[in-house]
Design a protein that fits this description.
It contains eleven helices and seven strands. It is an alpha/beta fold and 287 residues long. It folds into two domains: 178 residues, P-loop containing nucleotide triphosphate hydrolases (Rossmann fold); 70 residues, Conserved Hypothetical Protein Ylqf, Chain: A, domain 2, CATH 1.10.1580.10. Strands 1, 2, 3, 4, 5, 6 and 7 form a seven-stranded mixed β-sheet that branches. Helix 3 links the parallel strand 2 and strand 3. Bound molecules: guanosine-5'-diphosphate (GDP) and magnesium ion. The site of magnesium ion has 2 residues, from helix 6.
């Protein structure tokens, strides 16, 4: 696949991010890894479990409001049955944020459990949010912290070190998330994350990115696609035919009168990312 030749990876960046997280570990009870509910497998970096070994990890998925919940539940069923902490939420919904804080307060580090056993006052959970770009880390921090920006652990000296913010008596959060590199061991994952905007869309030619996206939609979410664009497409249609039909339906015409296929491509990509084509999940149940 020649198109992928222009993907350049910088494993050095990944190491830097992991080193930063490792430095903070002694101060952390709980790692909250954020993923995108539309990519329950692809949006996690499975190296983080090794990096934060010994710490509890909660896997919190954003964008529940944009996700195909049935497929999401199928995919995450095995994680839940293995006792992992898994939850999908809409980070912009107050009720969901309340549900999250209640859920997180049930997770105790071994140190906190010890305090509990001894009948001592359990110290507040200190949590770090981590995740790949665009999954909603900043949105979640803002939703949790709201207007109270007061720093509770002002460490002198290191101005750039993340500060801690008190969310409640039970919960303290680092104000800056740990940004992880996406999983890059397989091309499929990267392409899916580019559809969702977690990987720069320029990493592959726009034709390739949108051809794979429309093929995925034709095969998995045909109804959504036809409803959104008032088309009558079927899975046997080629990507080009689909974009032609969409350009026609939206009246995307170039000055000379030809259909503006490129505009149709950009429109589908943008509307897909915004959730306008409907609720989706791009991953499949693990084989
Ligand atoms: N619909 C929806 N959009 C969300 C949700 N969480 C975050 N977003 C949007 O996703 C985009 C990326 O969020 P951001 O917090 O900047 O991600 P970060 O890069 O992980 O910090 C923004 O446009 C957010 O408004 C969610 O639960 N539902
Ligand atoms: Mg951010």
């Amino acid at each position: 696949m020649a198109a992928y030749q222009n993907i350049h990876w910088f494993p050095g960046h990944m190491k830097v991010a992991f080193d930063e997280i490792k430095k903070l570990l002694p101060q952390i009870d709980l790692v909250i890894e954020i993923g995108d509910a539309r990519a329950p497998l692809s949006s996690f970096n499975n190296l983080i479990e090794k990096v934060v070994e010994g710490k509890k990890i909660a896997r919190i998925y954003s964008k529940k409001d944009l996700c195909d919940l049935k497929k999401f539940e199928e995919i995450t069923k095995s994680d839940i049955s293995q006792g992992k902490y898994v939850k999908a939420l809409d980070f912009k919904n107050k009720k969901d944020i309340k549900e999250l804080t209640d859920f997180l307060s049930t997770i105790k580090s071994s140190k906190q459990e010890k305090y509990q056993r001894l009948g001592l006052q359990v110290p507040a959970t200190r949590a770090l949010i981590v995740g790949i770009p665009n999954v909603g880390k900043s949105t979640l921090i803002n939703s949790l912290v709201g207007k109270k920006k007061a720093s509770v652990a002002n460490k002198p000296g290191h101005t750039r070190a993340p500060q801690m913010i008190k969310v409640s008596d039970k919960f303290v959060l680092f104000d800056t998330p740990g940004v992880l590199e996406p999983n890059y061991q397989d091309k499929q994952t990267i392409v899916k994350l580019a559809w969702l905007g977690s990987v720069k869309t320029e990493i592959l030619p726009i034709e390739e990115l949108t051809d794979t996206l429309i093929t995925f939609l034709l095969n998995n979410y045909l109804n959504n696609l036809n409803i959104r664009y008032s088309t009558n497409l079927s899975p046997i249609n080629q990507p080009y035919e689909a974009f032609e039909a969409i350009a026609q339906s939206r009246k995307f015409v170039l000055p000379g009168g030809a259909l503006d296929i490129n505009r149709a491509r950009m429109t589908v990509l943008k509307e897909f990312q915004e959730g306008a084509i409907g609720k989706v999940v791009v991953d499949n149940v693990k084989a």
